[in-house]
Design goal:
By secondary structure, this protein is α/β, with parallel strands linked by helices. The protein is built from six helices and eight strands; from the N terminus they run βαβααβαβαββαββ. It binds glycinamide ribonucleotide.
Amino acid sequence: MARRLKVGVLISGRGSNLQALIDAAADPSFPAEIVLVLSNKADATGLARAEAAAAFDAAMTAALVDAGAELVCLAGFMRLLSGDFVDAWHDRLINIHPSLLPSFRGLHAHEQALAAGVRFTGCTVHFVRAEMDDGPIVVQAAVPVLQDDTAETLAARVLLAEHRCYPQAVRWIAERRVRIEGVRAIVLDAPAGEAFIVSPG
Ligand code: GAR
């Protein structure tokens, strides 16, 4: 079997995107494997102390390097990373965000989408840059916003798309099909998406 890309995953909570990556990697033909999962929300006092001491990011880099991680996936990691961490993993650090970036950065993306009255929102997998929720986009999925949606029903619909998009992005990166050109990421031999979808429609 060809060598698989070694991936570290950083989480803070529920971990459903982590599960989607685990499920994808369970197939031996998937070109990436998960070598380490780190959370900043463990109860371990030592971890809390490290976080308070701001040594947390350096400790994460050490653990990721130790595990041989070549790509780091933020999967619901709700802690701002230091500039040093982002620099250390430049072009090897990706994030999933539950909106069609650059719309609705930051917290409460679904509430923001509902408040704006948009007919579509979605999710974005992107390389991480110093600015929050910014960086070259690998893949997006558009999800219709229904007129009676609440933040919860919308989040559930978007999450289904997230679980499809994140493994897809990791696959393309592991297959060396993603090339970063300035602020854009180009996916080589990318399949064409739907011409358009309409909402309401
Ligand atoms: C996901 O919806 C992810 O897009 C979002 O947190 C959730 C984590 O769920 N991330 C952000 O909002 C980052 N700005 P999960 O723990 O079940 O994967």
